[in-house]
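Side project, low priority. Logging it here so it doesn't get lost.
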Amino acid sequence: MEGVDYEKAFLLGWRFKLAVNEAVKMLKQGLDEESVLRKIYEFLPNYVYAGSCLKQAKAIAEGLVFHKASSAFANKPFIFSRGNKFDNGNGNIKLVSVDRVKIKYLDGSWIEGRVSFDEKYNALLKELIELANKEMEGYAARIVLEIS
C-alpha cells in the first residue's frame, strides 16, 4: 500500500487497536458485552469490525484471568475481521490473490494493497480464495500494519 491507501489502512488499524484496548478495560470493569459492543460501534461503525473487535478483547480479557495478570494490550495497529462464506469469505478483508488484498474502510470505500505470506502457503491460499468466491468457505483475516 502506498500513499493515501496506506494512511487510511494505518488509521483504521490504529482505531482498531484503540478500540480493542478500551474494550478490554470495559470488560475488566464488568461491563456487559452488549454495552461494550455498542461503545465499540460508536468508534468503529462497521458491525463486523465491531464484533471482531469484541471477540479480540474477550480473548485478551480471558487470558488475563487465566494467567492472573492485571494488564495486557494490543501495541501495534491491526485490522481483524471474522469470516463468512456468504460474504465471499470475508466482508471486510478480501484476499484477491496470494499477494493482493482489499480492505473495507469505515466509509465503505476499499483500500487495496499488498500482503505477503510464506510461499509454501500459496496453493492453500489459492484454494481458499476459489472456495470463498464460490461461497463455500469463509475465513477470518488479521492484518498487522508495520510502520515503515
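Brief comment: Residues 27 and 61 are 7 Å apart (CA to CA).
Revisit when time allows.
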